[in-house]
Write a structure and sequence with these properties.
heterodimer; A: mainly alpha; two-stranded antiparallel sheet; 2 strands; flat; B: alpha/beta; Amidase signature (AS) enzymes; eleven-stranded mixed sheet; about 40% helix; globular
């Protein structure tokens, strides 16, 4: 498995929507390489016929009766919002300038 | 009045039932204790003085009217800051949630309120429960009451330290890879990670959904059993909650305290002892195993060959789940919103990037990036897919081991508490603290840590871990209570941190003597 480069870390941070500064990239990229190195042995452990486990205990889908039940009021749901307008979440523009 | 803070929750419940004290008196005593020592310990991120006292007054009224709602009605509790509390700040130790006040209660919190336990406040933790030292809290570390220059474990160092320093008789923690049990070990307290699905995760801010589990943090086995029965059991609001009654845990703790281990098979996990474990930790472990033998238990050695890969599997599965879970912190609906500097009329994505950079600490960024990497196409099969297969192998190791043993045992953590700062910027060294606790989370089985003594080389607490099959949480309490009784018999008195033993009178000295402590 390849080492992780500074450029790859920058790309991953971009995918994860985190603005890393150059100083942070210098700091984090080598640490991530060390972490990956310490866990790379995993790729050789399990044979092809071993089934994966996503949850430790067997799960079945859970349904409830289709009945109305109380939820948050609009005011409660908006209580932690950074910005509110006309009883709605106010967010920055989502399209480009030219759109 | 400070004596009240030294007593167990079970004892305080009896004192309340007998009219010897009141919930207001108990709550005031613990709030005073917090005032006296928490400047040094920093177990709490938020103390809810008025709320706790109002709950205490209501409890006293219920009791006066002859209607207490349960055994623990009126006994105060502290709650890890990862559980949503209506009307009380919930930060998860992160800047991104600074000042957030949830509009609803986690089910665990609802159950605490319904059972009448006044909530003293919210306890410190590694940011989003990522860490083993509480140093990754955005609000500064918690200090170990046994030595204020040392870590209290993590991620639930605040809950463990609060209980160890007598700031609360009971606390709730959460355990994704050891975050209840490892702090228990290094602070000389008891912590239990229930069977996955045994305690509701509704309102628990998810780190890794398939691993997270809330549980009790206390000073005695019986107290953990009492609290576990309050918070545990089926919850329709959590689709992974087990729809079956809890086994009777308090009865199991009482049965265990009688000291009879005849017919109980205790398996020592070969892969979780020996090399890599501090000599004093190993010595206290070996003595505890001998005490169980003396009580009539049959000890066998079991091998779980895939446990050596548990850490690697965990550090792929956890970051993968965490990177997905933490995507919800997008600066739109709640939490921090940071507008990037030097950008005119920034769009939502630019705001999101700036917010997540400012709001998340180093460890969270490391794990989000690692998870994003592990889940990306091209690496998915080699990393995440393999980790899930290893998870199967670890579950099979447990199943095989539980054929020859009723419980498995190991030291909880490989070392005693290390110095604050010592491993802060060495992630791999930090991760090794959870080497013995992680397998239980991967397999969903319950685990308990109790104090096994003090290491000879440094005089710091060591932990003894007991693991049981899924749904057999009662076995933890039975075996734990037997060992606790045998150890107490040997020691004469419970383990008490020397720095804080003299209590409120010593607090001013503490404050001046430890000014140099890392903050």
């Amino acid at each position: 498995m390849p080492d992780i480069t500074r450029e790859e870390v920058a790309h991953l941070a971009d995918l994860a929507r985190i603005d890393l500064s150059d100083a942070e990239l210098d700091h984090l990229a080598p640490q991530l390489a060390v972490i990956l190195d310490s866990i790379k042995s995993i790729s050789e452990v399990a044979a092809d016929d071993i089934p994966p486990t996503s949850h430790a205990l067997p799960l079945t889908n859970v349904f409830r009766e289709d009945v109305r039940r109380p939820g948050l009021t609009a005011q409660e749901a908006l209580s932690g919002a950074p910005q509110v307008e006309e009883q709605r979440f106010a967010v920055p523009r989502i399209l480009g300038e030219e759109a | 009045m400070s004596d009240l803070t030294r007593r167990t929750a079970a004892d305080l419940a009896d004192a309340l039932a007998g009219g010897e004290t009141s919930s207001v008196e108990l709550t005031v005593a613990h709030l005073e204790r917090i005032d006296a020592v928490d400047g040094d310990v920093h177990a709490f991120l938020h103390v809810d003085r008025e709320g706790a006292l109002a709950q205490a007054r209501a409890s006293d009224e219920r009791r006066a009217a002859g209607n207490p709602v349960g055994r623990l009605d009126g006994v105060p509790v502290a709650v890890k800051d990862v559980l949503a509390t209506k009307g009380l700040p919930t930060t998860c130790g992160s800047r991104i949630l600074e000042g957030w006040v949830p509009p609803y209660d986690a089910t665990v919190v609802t159950r605490l309120r319904e059972a009448g336990l006044p909530i003293l406040g919210k306890t410190n933790m590694d940011e989003f429960a990522m860490g083993s030292s509480t140093e990754h809290s955005a609000y500064g570390p918690t200090h170990n009451p046994w030595d204020l220059d040392r870590i209290p474990g993590g991620s639930g160092g605040g809950s463990a330290a609060a209980v160890a320093a007598f700031e609360a008789p009971l606390a709730v923690g959460t355990d994704t890879g050891g975050s209840i049990r490892q702090p228990g070990a290094v602070t000389g307290t008891v912590g239990v990670k229930p069977t996955y699905g045994g305690v509701s995760r509704y309102g628990l801010v998810a780190l890794a959904n398939s691993l997270d589990q809330a549980g009790p943090v206390t000073r005695t086995i019986l107290d953990s059993a009492l609290l576990h029965e309050v918070i545990g059991g089926h919850d329709p609001l959590d689709s992974t909650s087990i729809d079956q009654p809890l086994p009777s845990l308090v009865d199991a703790a009482r049965a265990g305290a009688s000291g009879d281990m005849k017919g109980v098979r205790v398996g020592v996990v070969k892969e979780l002892t020996g090399e890599g474990y501090q000599p004093g930790v190993q010595a206290r472990f070996d003595e505890s195993v001998q005490l169980l033998v003396d009580a009539g238990a049959e000890v066998v050695e079991v091998s779980c060959p895939h446990f050596v890969h548990a850490l690697a599997a965990y550090y792929l599965i956890l970051p993968s789940e965490a990177s997905s879970n933490l995507a919800k912190f997008d600066a739109m609906r709640y939490g921090l919103r940071v507008v990037p500097e030097g950008v005119d009329n920034p769009n939502a994505e630019e705001v999101m990037r700036a917010t997540r950079d400012a709001g998340f600490g180093d460890e969270v960024k490391r794990r989000i990036i690692l998870g994003t990497y592990a889940l990306s196409s091209g690496y998915y099969d080699a990393y995440y897919g393999q980790a899930q297969k290893v998870r199967t192998l670890i579950s099979r190791d447990f199943a095989a081991a539980f054929e020859s043993a009723d419980v498995l045992v190991s030291p909880t953590a490989p070392t005693t508490a290390f110095k604050l700062g010592e491993k802060l910027d060495d992630p791999v060294a930090m991760y090794l603290n959870d080497i013995a606790t992680i397998p239980a989370n991967l397999a969903g089985v319950p685990g308990l840590s109790l104090p096994s003594g003090l290491a000879d080389e440094d005089g710091l607490p060591t932990g003894f871990q007991i693991l049981a099959p899924a749904m057999a949480d009662d076995r933890l309490y039975r075996v734990g209570a037997t060992l606790e009784a045998a150890l107490l018999d040997r020691w004469g008195t419970p383990l008490v941190p020397p720095e804080l033993v003299e209590g409120v009178d010593r607090a001013p000295d503490l404050a001046s003597a430890d000014k140099e402590t890392v903050r």
